[in-house]
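hiii so my PI (J.) wants the whole complex modelled not just the main chain, which honestly fair. so below is everything: three entries, each one labled with what it is. i double checked the lines twice but i was tired so who knows lol
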Amino acid sequence: MREEHSNWFSRWEEELPSPDELMPLSQTLITPDLALAFDIQNSSNTSPPLPCPSPPLSNPLPGSGNGIAPPNSADFGDSADLGSGAASDEPARTLKRPRLVWTPQLHKRFVDAVAHLGIKNAVPKTIMQLMSVDGLTRENVASHLQKYRLYLKRMQGLSSGGGGGGGGGLVASSDPTDHLFASSPVPPHLLHSARSTSDHFLPFVPMATLQQHHHHQQHMAAAAAAAAVAGHPQLQPSYHRQVGHFGSPPNGQFEHPFLARQSQPVHRMGAPVHSSIPNYIEDLESANANGGRKVLTLFPTGDD
DNA sequence: GGACTAATAT
DNA sequence: GATATTAGTC
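here's the output for the full assembly
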């Protein structure tokens, strides 16, 4: 029974798409037209070599002299309407980003991050950093986290035999309810109601790297985790936030998915935790959802 | 002021 | 129903 713990993660890890599988996809959606329209050239690419092997930590500081994509550039309200000239320039900071769609893969990554952090330390900012998905904002994560917590709550209620409510005989097994959530296994320790950092389940998060002088407020554990996440110089997963805006390649360069594939020496140690969370690509889909809203879909390549 | 959560809006 | 946005709080 206890073995299940190491089991679930092992299985889970296996399920995780390998770096190879994850890389592709990316701008496949950027049609030649778009590229032309924006004068985008596929020179090599600007993204960092990313020799980072294990943890998906990264230092989310755009300011780096990378020359990579600045956090957010213009985002056009209507991508299709190149002519609109809305954001071609660089105003855009104020424009709204496309609605994010949580694909199963993206959600999986999310769960992975939460699992690694432990529900207690799993707060939007930290999760976001761990996921290191470009274009993903704290708000995105916060919103999703809110829903996810609700889901966990429900799960607990159901499995706890509480069932008092009109559950009837419904057990977790038969709940097609949250399709998305159901798509990813919920780490057992998440259901047990938050343990603490000291829990035997902390994957990486080397406290040794604490170098951030956090101010006050909030528990140190969270800060520690965050610091660890942010304070890893060598681990630079994928960091470029250029979501939803094909339009303004900061450097006028776009990296090619296939070209940019980072070689991730996924070395798995005995430890069940610490899967390498590679990189995700985003992809913009103009769905005429609401009065001309666009839908942003960050999706990984590889399938599940 | 930043970040978190819960509530509410779209 | 899924996300985004707002509001209150720490």
